[in-house]
Structures are given as C-alpha cells and as structure tokens.
Amino acid sequence: MKLYYSPTSPYVRKVMVVLHETGQLDDVELLSAATTPVAPDAALKAKNPLGKVPALERADGPAMFDSRVITAYLDQRGKGGLYPEGARHWDTRTLEALGDGMLDAAILMTYESRLRSEQQRWDGWVDAQWDKIAHACDTLEAIWMSHLAGPLDIGQIAVACALSYADFRHGPRNWRAGHDALAAWFAEFESRPSMVATRPPAAA
C-alpha cells in the first residue's frame, strides 16, 4: 500500500497512529504530498480527485480517501478493534466525528491566517471556529471523560489528534483553560508511543 501524506496534517496523523497501533506501519510506503486547497499536488489529485491527504493506494481496489474511511479499513485489515461492536460502537463513531469536527474548525483557522492576505482575513469568522473547539472541549469534559478513559478506540485517537493540532497551530488560545480533566487525560494519552512517533515537526 502507498499512503499519500503530509507530516503536519492531523488527518494523516490519525491514519499514522492507527498504523502504529495495529502494527501495519511496515505495510505502507509513505509518499509526501505538498498540497493546499489552492495548489493541490498533481500526483495526489490523480489518486484523490479532491486533492486532499490522506489517500491510500491499494493493490486490490481504487485509492481510498478521507481519514475515517482509511482508518476503518486499516482497523479491519489489522484486526485492531478500534471500532468496537455493541453499544460502544456508535459512541465511538460519534466521538470520532466530534474530533474530526474540531479538526475541521482548527484547519479553517489555519487556512485563514496562512492562505489569505491580511486584508482578506475575517477575525470574527476565525473566532467562531474557535468557539466550536471550545464548546467541544466543554462537551468532552462534561459527558465524555468516562469513554475517553476506557479501552483504546478511534474516538480517542481523533480527539487526541484534534487537541494536539490545536496546540500545534493555535496554542495561545489555550484549550486547556477550564478543562482540567480533559487536559489530564490528554497529557497521558499523548505519551503513547504512537502519538510520540507521529508528532508534527516543530518548525513546520
């Protein structure tokens, strides 16, 4: 398999964490793709018409894209159990969606500052995206801590990647303020070898 990736993409990081956790890292060749919404990588676009990372090229079918599709495929392939059966299944999928939604908001904030000229930037819109992240942290703190403390699943990975990306690109906004339990959980989770191995480069 070939994975089109960027080391700073939090969606790629979700996939990389799953590869580590399910013991499949050696099964994948990593292909760097320098891509942005306004300048997609040509080789990547040939595999994913949306021009986004991650994209996973397989020998037995068309390339897969969207991190949720790829992580579900890899989990099934590696028998990782990150998508549990029974009552916990839908809670896990909901938590994954929440983590991905936090990532969506954080990435839109990043694009606003990196891809728009200063004259085009809309501070109110950026603040509204951060409000989504802050409210998600409130919700995680209020009702999801018992799930986060449970057996490893894709929901935890998605939330951890979202919180880490918030630190990486928007650290001064300090999502930890007022979220002591969530911050304590994250401090422990980010010490997992899979999280340590997939940290984005500090200078990026």
UniProtKB/TrEMBL annotation:
Residues 1-82 form the GST N-terminal domain. SUPFAM superfamilies: GST C-terminal domain-like (SSF47616), Thioredoxin-like (SSF52833). PROSITE patterns: GST_NTER. InterPro entries: Glutathione-S-Trfase_C_sf, Glutathione_S-Trfase_N, GST_Omega/HSP26, Thioredoxin-like_sf. The keyword Transferase applies. Keywords: Transferase. It holds the Pfam family GST_N_2. CDD domains: GST_C_6, GST_N_3. GO terms for cellular component: cytoplasm. GO terms for molecular function: transferase activity. Transmembrane segments: none annotated. This is Glutathione S-transferase. It comes from Pseudooceanicola lipolyticus.
